[in-house]
Every structure is written in structure tokens, then in C-alpha cells.
Amino acid sequence: MNGDSAHKIAARGNIVSGATLKSSLELDIMREAGRVVAFAVRKAFEALEHGITTIELDNIARQAIESQGAKPGFLGLYGFPSTACISINEEIVHGIPSDRIVQSGDIVTMDCGAIVDGYNSDHAVTKLVGFSSSEKHGLISTTLGSLERGIQAAQPGNRVGDISSAVENHVRKSSFEVVREYVGHGIGRDLHEPPQVPNFGPGGHGLVLQPGLVLAIEPMVNAGSWKTRMADDGWTVVTEDGALSCHFEHTVAITEDGPVVLTVE
User: Fold this and answer.
1) How far apart are CA 224 and CA 173, in angstroms?
2) Is residue 217 situated within a structural domain?
3) Dist CA 87 CA 246 (whole Å)
4) Domain count of the chain?
5) What angle do CA 74, 59, 72 make, to 5 degrees?
6) Phi/psi of residue 75, each to 5°?
7) Where are the beta strands (DSSP E) in 48-145?
8) Nearest by Cα to 85 from 104, 106, 114, 113
9) Does 166 fall in a domain?
10) Which pLDDT score is estimated for 12?
């Protein structure tokens, strides 16, 4: 779930202080929370096909999290009604699962979190259902590549802005645009902690990355304009121009040896 929540937490790329550094024990717990949510998203997307509903996908994710002795991180957060945010096509983030049927050719994003012993994880993956256009494949590839560049830039001694710049520079090689109104964030006992992690902006600015800092790095990339609007349900954020959107996210720990992705099995 994004750092600019559906409660309109002011993001807009501002970098704030007050980030917490995690101990090795806390990082071990967060690694387990990351494993759980990665497992849940994988299990849900194993069932992703034409004809399934988004609430069925949500139920699979919830069962997978609870079967591991963890708690869904999003359920009830700020009043959100489901385990996962599931967004389709022009929906960017915070889509509410429902009886909506997934169609062949859809781009589907699942953004999900798990809590283990009071510590959060946050993870988003976008998948294409069936066969589709080269534009959709390109959008997914570009977004995933931008996440990988952002993670590579999350080196101790670098700054948050170096992550932002790496993401934006990769996307700018394409015809796509980075969403500016929603950003990544620190994570730990709270799902949303300082600092905010924009997906755009110059390098060399913002909080210095130190071992023990944990970030949710999450580029959101649109096939058209970067501008967004809120749907009538008050949660789902969509592209202003109706263009397709894509979203990937990993929870990443900064260590002395470099960035470590926690949201993997």
C-alpha cells in the first residue's frame, strides 16, 4: 500500500526525518513478514486467469497469510475493507476487491501486506492475463526495471533521492510517465513510516541511507500522463486520462553490504 494512503496523507515527494533503524532481530522478523506476503501474492496469482473475480483473489491471499500464522496488514487499515488492493488496467492503486471478473488481456496489480510479531511487510506485483499488446508488456517490463534500478541505488551512504532518480531515469527511457502523487515509504511497526520515497526527482537529496533502515520502494508508472484522480468509491486511484498503469513494490532493508529484498520466499 502506498505512502500517500487513501486518507490523503500528504506525500508529494517531501522527505521527512524521524526514520527508525531496525536491529538485526527486527530485520529477521521483517524478513519473515516479507516471506509471508510474497507467498500470499504468489498463491493468489497462481489462480489468476480469465473469469476469476478479484474478491476470490483477495480470499486466497488472506488464507495464505493466515495459514502462516501472520495477520493481513491492510485489512482495516484506515478503514480499508480487504486483505489486498487489487487494481486493474487504468487503476493505479487501492482498488477494492469485489465480484468484478478478470478478463483476458487485463493488467492486474495485487498490493498486499502481512504482519508478523507486530512488524509489517508491503509487496506489489503486476501480471498480464493471457495474451495482449506489446505496449502492455513494455509497461510491465519498464516498471519492473525501474524497481530494480531503485533497489540497486539503495546503497548505504546514498540518499533517498538517489533511489528516486534511478527510478525516474529508467522510466524516462520509455514513453511512459512516473506517478508523482503517490510515493514509497519507510516501514516497520507501522506500515507507513518516514521517510517518504518518491519515484522522481534529482539524486543527492533527502535522508542518508543507513544500515537498519527499511523502505517500501514502489514505482507506479502510467502509459499516458502521470496525473491521477480518485474514483467514486473514495479509495481506488485511477489515471486521469484513462491510460493503463502498472505498479511493483518490494520491502527493502539497507545493510552494510547493500540493499536486501525482504519480500521474497
Assistant:
1) 14
2) yes
3) 9
4) 1
5) 25
6) -60, 115
7) 71-72, 84-88, 91-93, 107-116, 119-128
8) 113
9) yes
10) 30
- Residue 172 CA from chain centroid, whole number: 20
Q: Is the pLDDT of residue 8 over 70?
A: no
141-192 pLDDT tens trace: 999 999 999 999 999 999 999 999 999 999 999 999 999 999 999 999 999 9
pLDDT digits (tens, 9 = 90+) for 29-85: 999 999 999 999 999 999 999 999 999 999 999 999 999 999 999 999 999 999 999
In a domain, 7, yes or no: no
Rg, Å, the chain Cα set: 17
> Distance between CA atoms of 71 and 216, rounded to whole angstroms?
18
C-alpha to C-alpha distance for 81 and 61, rounded to whole angstroms: 14
Residue with cell 520509455: 174
The CATH code of the domain that includes 234 is 3.90.230.10
Cβ density class 235-263: b for 16+ within 10 Å, e for less: bbbbbeeebbbbbbbbbbbbbeeebbbbb
Distances (CA, A) of 187 to 18, 85, 250: 12, 18, 11
Give domain status of residue 11, yes or no.
Answer: no
From CA 16, how far away is CA 196, in angstroms rounded?
7
Residues linked to residue 222 through DSSP beta bridges, in sequence order: 177, 245
Question: Residue 239's domain spans which residues?
Answer: 24-261
Q: Indicate the pTM of the whole model.
A: 0.93
Q: Are 186 and 195 in contact (CB under 8 A)?
A: yes
Nearest Cα residue to 217 out of 150, 162, 139: 150
